[in-house]
Amino acid sequence: MTEVTPFYDKKVQCLACKHSYSTTKIRSRFVKVKGHDSDFCPVYGCDELNPLLYNVSVCPQCGFSYTDEFTKYIVPVLKTDLEKKISRHWQPQDYGDIRSIDEAINTYKLAAYCALIKKEKKITIAGLYLRTAWLYRKTDEDEQERRFINLATHEYIESYLNDDFKGTAMSETKLLYLIAELLRRQDKYEDAVKYLSKVIEKQHLSTEPKIVEMAKEQWYEMRESFKEQKRNHLA
């Protein structure tokens, strides 16, 4: 009987140049989630079996990199842009095998660049930046993690203001909470409180009571922290 391994090869076709290639994925039955950080970063039982490392497909021929969140169609003028800005400078390399964290970070940066050129939704670009931050968290590179959290926050706020998250898997409740949490992680407490307040104001419209509860807890903690700071300031 053949032993089933955690990894398998998935055949994909590049959205840009139509080249067919294989990329590694992890079978879901081998993935063990122990919990989540407050910004929804999954904590896996095994660092090697982390699906985040394999989220991005990178075409070895032209360099176009994407995730399942990308729209499949590329407008001809943007295809020309991708060719000019990526394919012409691409040194053929293969990200199709087992990936290290550093290699996975490179794939997310490539995908974010492709998403910007292809004019993907803000919510998609934000997700790429956030996952890059999560991987930097694994390597304890605090400055880089903060940099990508900042980039993600900007895109998530744009997505919220322009309603570009509508019709995706991201709900308004989750988006507002996530923006607040990312702002809090950058020590922008006043802005964070504003977004948490929006979650609480709209709680009657939400179907995600757990996220509403998380927002209330964070709001309460930050309010107490403000009071403490004021007391210390006056003392």
Architecture overview:
The chain has a domain at 7-120. Helices cover 50% and strands 11% of the residues. It contains seven helices and six strands; from the N terminus they run ββββββααααααα. The strands form three sheets. A two-stranded antiparallel ribbon has the order 1-2. It has a two-stranded antiparallel sheet with strand order 3-4. A hairpin with a 5-residue loop joins strand 3 (33-36) and strand 4. It starts with 6 loop residues before the first strand and ends with a helix. The mean pLDDT is 95. It comes from Rossellomorea oryzaecorticis. This is DUF2225 domain-containing protein.
Key terms:
235 residues; mainly alpha; two-stranded antiparallel ribbon; 7 helices; 50% helix; DUF2225
Main sheet overview: 2 strands, antiparallel
Helix content: 40-55%
Shape: globular
Main sheet strand line-up: 1-2
Number of helices: 7
| Alpha carbon gap, first and last residue | 73 Å
Radius of gyration: 20 Å
Number of strands: 6
Mean pLDDT across all amino acids: 95
Tell me the structural class. mainly alpha
Beta-strand level of the residues, as a percent range? Answer: 5-15%
H-E string = EEEEEEHHHHHHH
Low-pLDDT parts are: none
